[in-house]
Structure prediction request, 287 residues.
Amino acid sequence: MPTFQKEIESLVFLLDDPEPYIRSSVLNRLEEIGESAVPLIDQARATTTDKEHREFLTSIIRDLTFDTFQQEIIELTEDGIYTLEDLEDAIFMFSRFENPTIRTKPYVQHLDSLADKVAHQVYKAETDERKLLTLIRFLYTEKKFGGCQSDYLNPSHSYMHQVLTHRKGVPLSLAFIILFVGRRLNLSLHGVNMPLHFLVKYVPGNGEPIFIDPFNQGNIISKEQCNLFLKKSGVKLQDHFFDTAPPLSMFTRFIRNLINGHHELDERKKAEQLSKILTLVETSRMV
Prediction:
């Protein structure tokens, strides 16, 4: 066994030491070693049954990989987030912030599977509106996706891999489910950055756009209902609230949701790291 690997194993073992000075020295040395230490730390994380220690190891991996993760986000943004496919890639990248060694491919395949299962029903629907209603019924009635009824700001209701696993989310993350599955079915679905409550807009071949509330069982909602909601919330009404949201603006809204969620959990370091990324994204040439 190479000496370098033996050193990393010894350092990982010492992370259990209760003495603060030893822990601090170990963390400093792991930082010097960098990402090369991640595989062995991840092995230790996989074997521990202590939830607190597992999160501690996860935070170390996150810190060691953060610079690389940040650079990948910057490069993705600079290349351009123009389409729902680009947006999906960007959203899944953030699953790696929550769990730095996660494999996101199975979750992308989950979206593929959802689309495959409902495709025949959607394609045989006689009208555009029936195609939409078929997808909504499939996701909310058959697959049981729905709005989280408690712990609203918890980041687990925003990270896409968590939403696909637990089928609970906030308006934006549930909108992503509709948009990403709908994209695979070639449905004309778009995000709508309405203040306080994200919406989905369906544009049929003929007729007016149909607005969907992703948080409340995918119910169809009118502009008048939205305006009443905004008015009661003290928001001055503006026509552009119902415009199609560019993918990049949905991406930044997603990051803000994560920042707010980690602040709510008093996870200040995560919130600060995400805030740093948001600033870089917003000041890129694409914004």
